[in-house]
Write a structure and sequence with these properties.
Elements (H helix, E strand, L loop, with lengths): L1 H12 L11 H14 L4 H7 L9
Length: 58
């Protein structure tokens, strides 16, 4: 968890960055689950990757 906080702080502090300093691991998980289908991955595969047992909950 500390590693993520350090990385977020670094990304957010870079000049010109629009990366939110309040980003959490939960936010990153949701972002990842959103970009996978946008890149062509199936919802069922995303559910498996994110350990969601019911794709309808995605």
């Amino acid at each position: 968890m500390r590693t993520v906080k350090v990385a977020v702080k670094k990304l957010a502090s870079e000049e010109g960055s629009t990366f939110p300093p309040s980003t959490t691991t939960h936010d990153l998980r949701h972002h990842y689950a959103s970009v996978l289908p946008a890149g062509g991955e199936s919802v069922v595969a995303v559910a498996g990757i994110s350990a969601t047992t019911t794709p309808a909950w995605s």
